[in-house]
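Weekly puzzle thread! Below is a chain. First person to post its structure in token form gets bragging rights.
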Amino acid sequence: MASEAPPFWWEAADWRAWSLLPLSALYGLVAGYRMASAKRARVDVPVLCVGNFTVGGEGKTPVSIALAKQAKKLGRKPGFLTRGHGGSMGGGSMTVAHLVDAKKDLSRHVGDEPLLLARHAPTLVAPDRLMGARELIGIGCDFIIMDDGFQSARLHMDYAVMVVDARRGLGNGHVIPGGPMRARLIDQLRYADAILTMGEGSAADHVVRRASRAGRPVLQARLKPRGVRAIRGGRFLAFAGIGNPKKFFDSVAEAGGTVVEARSFPDHHPFDDDEARDLIAAAEKNGLELITTEKDLVRLRGGSEALSALAEHCRVLQVEAQFDAPDMPVTIIESTIEAWRERILK
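Winning reply:
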């Protein structure tokens, strides 16, 4: 669903959203009931969930990586648990968990985000989150970070941080299929422990007000470009197949590059040979450099000759999550551990 999100989801609700309201209401009712009635399995280590209220990318992966780094600094051995969206192993037919090898695995098998996560901590792709959590514990992990999975209601979460894009907010506010919401906001807030707004903008103000009334802390962070020297002053054809490509184009400009041409693709988009050749030809014709995201680059590697050639032609803009309050990652990790300790003492 995330890779096929229609543009009207991110605009003011119009006739399309309202005409789908009966289906959205039914979807929301089922999702809310599932979250409320599910028997969430508990494991013997702290579980931190980094999720979002909507489909599409909001910056969860950089946030998850930043929190894993902090957990390591505090003496923990974190492990990532993910479904591997965009990879064949993330399908419902998969019954065996897979420990990602960042050097050998391909994105078409494990997904693009797991390859990025696996560079920082053991990462397990598993449709059954309980099974995956137990396998991570079995290889020595003592702190689990779920990248997404908030709505799955299969595994008990000791702490859940919900990431909201400050520019897009909740889109039109409608539940799937009329909008990007995975369930009604009121039903999801019940299980959230903190809200993290990413970037600058006012689109998340509604969520912030609702969260504040519900007594949930509101945190702020942004995506900070890294390695900007290689980008500053360049003229680029920028392309991205992520949840919010505009966020990437803005980051290139923030890093000092000029985006002469921008091409957007659906999230987790599997590039084909014709697209690869077209991107290379367009850049060469206009005297531009190609630039893309880390997430897109891992999908190009290990593919055909044309995809490999595109990967070789590309610069990559790396980003990392930067919290407005530097001690916030510590607070999140410690809050998760404290909640876990209270749980096991009951």
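Puzzle host: Confirmed. Bonus trivia for everyone else. The domain at 40-167+181-222+323-345 is CATH 3.40.50.300 (Rossmann fold).
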